[in-house]
Amino acid sequence: MLISHRCIYLDAQGHKTDALLVREGRVVAIGDEAVAMHREDEPVVLPQGACLFPALADAHVHLWGVGMRAGSIDMTGTTGPQQIYRRLQTVRDLPDITISELSPSGWVLGHGWNENSWSDSAELQRRELDAIFPDIPVCLHRIDRHAVACNSEALRRARLDESYQFVGSGNARKNADGQLSGVCVDQAMMPILAAIPAATEDEDRQLLEDTAHILRKHGVASAHMALTEVARVAMLQRLAQSGELPIRVFAMIDGTDPALGEALEAGPLHDPNAWVSARTIKYFADGALGSKGAHLFEPYPDGTLGLVMHDADELAGRIAGLIESGWQVAVHAIGDAAAHGVLNAFAGADAAQRERVRPRLEHCQMMTSDDAQRFEALSVLASIQPIHLRGDAVWAQNMLTNAQLDRLYSWREIADNALLAAGSDYPIDDPNPWHGIATALTRRLSDGRLFAPDKALTRREILAAYTSGAAYAAHWEKDLGRLDVGYIADVIALSDDPFSASPERIWEMQVLQMWMDGIEVALS
């Protein structure tokens, strides 16, 4: 197949050609050579749009899991508890509805509430949830999936009562009268999540299919699955072998999965065809900023410092051992203290082996200047989600001190010292990568203000983060992220030129056509 267009970008640095010759899913020639090598029996494709570009990657996304379930009620954008209660009451009042029709789990599940965007300090209360669903368990995930709000039936099924006093990296909140409010944060929510019937493989496959189509619509051909169980890797492999996998998946295995030993015994899985790899173990160093679980050096207004999910010495030991065995390690770190601890843990691993496996710091939301400068020396990659800034920095300005805010989303300093891989953290945030790209360029918040615009990224930096940087983070840099000779022909046709369009136009970017392995795929 010969793809001909007046403007074909080969990479995020702006190198161009006007023709690509694709055979067996890979680019075999470009420009005049492609035209000269083209055979008469090979089709000629004349794509639409302003330009062609390498298909994007989402370097941190959840294709299923983290509370993603069929029938889950979307509460994103709700303005307070009363609106959530009304939405639940509407569900309860639907005619002839059964919970099995609403959700295969038998629970009423929801996601997306965010008290930081509410106009008052009200909190979801289980007694209000009880009034709507007295006999059916309710579990509503906070927007960051680091907290849930539950009713009494959910607590009963989790075998929790008023004596529940969680000790560890989490919190079971109580009201002034000592009664459980129903809100549980981080590890305190684990008994509740464990009580929800597990998703079947069919449900996971459906969510995977749905999420993949959302991503492909925006030009994303490969996804770094930020947390998955060992057993689900086999599912991905089966789908890939049968040709049913709708998106390339780089899987990060949950480091707390009871079946982790099976994966470690089998060793890192790398797919040279870049469809399914599982060579990364994922851990959590802390919680999330919005639920005051991010681990900070200086306290939140309530005097707390956030949560430590793993003992620092234990985490350092695990990381060193895994890296020595050839595993890439990715660690979630939101707060500045968490990031500092994770970088210290990475520093304890063998330097040469660390460079080979490319450890990843996931999120990099808050860092000291000194730590931002350590990435290159430690061969650590920075996985960022630019779209988080758009919403989080609005309420963070009411939560953090000026000194803490100066450490928030320090992309400029990080980019000067690290290779970036960018993603969305969907379903926690907007999956449209062009919204993330526009936000990285402007640092414009949802309320229209600019947040430290001097820390913005350049076009080349952010476009690379969604292409070659993400490919490098997945050890797929010889196959994806570019459209040069030898690379897989994952191509998108765009409505605008990302190198010249304004950030406002980039925000509105449309993907007109998409090819994976040189085959055009549906965008809807």
Structural features, described:
This protein has 524 residues and is α/β, with parallel strands linked by helices. 31% of the residues lie in helices and 22% in strands. It contains 21 helices and 22 strands. The strands form 4 sheets. Strands 6-13-14-15-16-17-18-19 form an 8-stranded parallel beta sheet. The longest helix is centred in the middle third of the chain and has 17 residues, at 201-217. It is globular, with a radius of gyration of 23 Å. The protein starts with a strand and ends with a strand. The model has no long low-confidence stretch (mean pLDDT 94).
The count of β-strands is: 22
Distance between the termini: 24 Å
Spatial extent as radius of gyration? 23 Å
Shape: globular
Helices, by number, come to 21
Helix content: 25-40%
Query: Structural class per helix/strand content?
Result: alpha/beta
Note the beta-strand portion: 15-25%
Q: How would you write the strand order of the largest sheet?
A: 6-13-14-15-16-17-18-19
- Poorly predicted parts: none
Q: Main β-sheet: number of strands, strand sense, barrel status?
A: 8 strands, parallel
Topology:
Blueprint: E1 2-9, E2 16-23, E3 26-30, H1 31-37, E4 44-45, E5 51-54, E6 56-61, E7 73-74, H2 81-92, H3 99-102, E8 108-113, H4 126-132, E9 138-142, E10 147-150, H5 152-157, E11 170-174, E12 180-186, H6 190-195, H7 201-217, E13 220-228, H8 230-241, E14 248-254, H9 260-266, E15 276-284, H10 312-324, E16 328-333, H11 336-347, H12 351-357, E17 360-363, H13 369-372, H14 375-378, E18 381-384, H15 387-396, H16 402-405, H17 411-415, E19 420-422, H18 433-442, H19 459-465, H20 468-473, E20 491-494, H21 503-507, E21 511-516, E22 519-520
Parallel strand pairs: 1-4, 6-13, 7-8, 8-9, 13-14, 14-15, 15-16, 16-17, 17-18, 18-19
Antiparallel strand pairs: 1-2, 2-3, 5-20, 9-10, 10-12, 11-12, 20-21, 21-22
Helix pairs in contact: 10-11, 15-18
